[in-house]
Amino acid sequence: MSSTESRISITAKTPAGSLVTIRAESESELDNLVALAIESVKAAVTELEGAVGGRAATATNINAGFQALQSSLGATPVQDVPPFNQAPSLGGGRTCKHGKMTGIQGPSKDGGIYKGYFCPSPSGAADKCKTQYLQKHDPEYVTFSPDKIK
To answer: Domain-by-domain residue ranges, the chain?
Structure first.
């Protein structure tokens, strides 16, 4: 498959909470993928969960687990994302008259993602500054590093 969007997509959640997704264009392709990959998925999930199991999840063991999962499945990343342990950009962001605004990212009502800077004043404050939302065409939209994800 040349696309990450397929006609059939199945996601399963393991007892430990790991998510495994299999995508196919037809029912027969899905059957073949499941039959061929079941042991690889099982081994990869076991390795991932073993990397973080029984102790607090750290950036190092989560990244190692994802790399093991990716290599055992022969996966190709479809989106470059910063490593789990990448610190938020401390030099960026925006400020208002109340101080450093909080960068927040979350799901929007239309199914997309919103990214914006929120005034640090308490909710309901009369002089709370207006939220500064980023638009998809803004250069900062791609490099935005949120302080909080909802």
So the answer is: 8-73, 95-149
